[in-house]
Amino acid sequence: MRLSRYFLPVLKEDPKEAQIVSHRLMLRSGMIKQQAAGIYSWLPLGFKVLRRIEQIVHEEQTRAGHIPLLMPTLQPADLWRESGRYDDYGEEMLRIRDRHKRDLLYGPTNEEMITDIFRSHVNSYKDLPLTLYHIQWKFRDEIRPRFGVMRGREFLMKDGYNFDLTREDALHAYNRHLVSYLRTYERMGLQAIPMRADGGPIGGDYTHEFLVLAETGESEVFYDSQITDLKFGSRDIDYDDKAQCQAVLEEFTSRYARTDETHDEAVFAQVPEDRRRVARGIEVGQIFYFGTKYSEPMGATVVGPDGARVPVHMGSHGIGVSRLLGAIIEASHDDKGIIWPEGVTPFHVGIVNLKQGDVATDSACEALYAELKARGLDPLYDDRDERAGAKFATMDLIGLPWRITVGPRGLAANKVELTSRRSGETTEMSPAEAVERLSATYRPVFAAGLPSPAA
Ligand code: ATP
Ligand code: MG
């Protein structure tokens, strides 16, 4: 993309309404625009990151054997009357009436609808196990929407639902989700710690929340510091292997890590004092096993091996896709702006032309731009007629992990500068070496992916 042709409405001033750094930086870098309290337009740069995050979520769900579909945002109230949640959900639910006076609602989650799909089409235990998921907009009329996309009213969520014959199979589905979430967050450059949590309105006593540690987090968390040393890394996992998935769950959940809802001082006191941590965290996902809570009242049954109909065991599993942008920025920024992890960056590299209009500099930039694209990279070329300082400030603000600076003085010796946004380190090299270096840097990032299931 050429910046002169892009739409990047950066703000010079700090927006007054933003209380936390991620909200401020998303507004300043032209990623989002607020349209109403907790409701945002995603401007091109923000939309690009949102899509990258979504893509990683799709890839890791597919890898785990989970199947994408798409349910609507609007749902008939009658489905929710069957589960009893139409009345229970309260004011967070946005209720709508259509021209025929039928009650609808803007879905805050999809347990009822997916259970309806299941009971309409699945009849036998032979069709299990089954896990379906979608990435769709949700609406919750939060009493206090704040912190930008972190606590919106309209927000994008991945929600997945497993259907299994037995409790044991459903707990394996739970473990599969835990493993796939660990991989998902790590690919985004995040450490998200599974913590024992509380069931809340979705119900269920078997649940973990994934928390990213950050001072601005809304949850108070208590944990054994050893847990922050755990990395999932690039280990290979067979998602059908129950023992292997169970071992990962045990590894990542055996140390003390709880939110304030389930915190227990007496148990926490058994953690050696120098390892006890009390901090704040951002919830970026949650997994639940809730057995037959929905399948029983809604009649989601299958014919079991002995010929009798039994209600299926279910769980639901969510990732806060739009909240993740805020969480990543809270975890990765400095006083100049965002620092995107390579896995989610909107553009892989920025090219800064120090002397726009100079024939040799322009043509070196054009050649770099073409070569990077030919290598499968997505560069942003700042080809505007601006001062170098302004170009650098924009690149730092929007947080691309790498910048190539091209000027006539360097070019005379066939050199450009390659700068890391994170370390600030700059190295001189030939344009060809810069392209080589960047392709090598992104090779593992691309290798971590899978072909798009939606394609
Ligand atoms: P919270 O406790 O933050 O209100 P929740 O536990 O009600 O969230 P879940 O039902 O577990 O949310 O939804 C799955 C994920 O969706 C959450 O882990 C979170 O990352 C995200 N999420 C929930 N509510 C919002 C919101 N208002 N804005 C943005 N993301 C949200
Ligand atoms: Mg939750």
Automatic annotation (TrEMBL):
Entry GO terms, CC: cytosol
Cell compartment(s), UniProt: Cytoplasm
Keyword Aminoacyl-tRNA synthetase attached: yes
Top EC class, one word: ligase
Keywords tagged on the record: Aminoacyl-tRNA synthetase, ATP-binding, Cytoplasm, Ligase, Nucleotide-binding, Protein biosynthesis
Catalytic activity: tRNA(Pro) + L-proline + ATP = L-prolyl-tRNA(Pro) + AMP + diphosphate
Gene Ontology molecular function terms on file: ATP binding; proline-tRNA ligase activity
SUPFAM superfamilies per the UniProt record, alphabetical: Class II aaRS ABD-related (SSF52954), Class II aaRS and biotin synthetases (SSF55681)
Highest taxon above the source species: Bacteria
PROSITE patterns the UniProt entry points to: AA_TRNA_LIGASE_II
GO terms of biological process kind: prolyl-tRNA aminoacylation
E.C. number: 6.1.1.15
Residue ranges of domain Aminoacyl-transfer RNA synthetases class-II family profile in the record: 38-341
A Pfam cross-reference name: tRNA-synt_2b
Keyword match Aminoacyl-tRNA synthetase: yes
Role: Catalyzes the attachment of proline to tRNA(Pro) in a two-step reaction: proline is first activated by ATP to form Pro-AMP and then transferred to the acceptor end of tRNA(Pro).
Complex formation: Homodimer.
Family to which this protein belongs: Belongs to the class-II aminoacyl-tRNA synthetase family. ProS type 2 subfamily.
Name the record gives this protein: Proline--tRNA ligase
Origin species: Paracoccus siganidrum
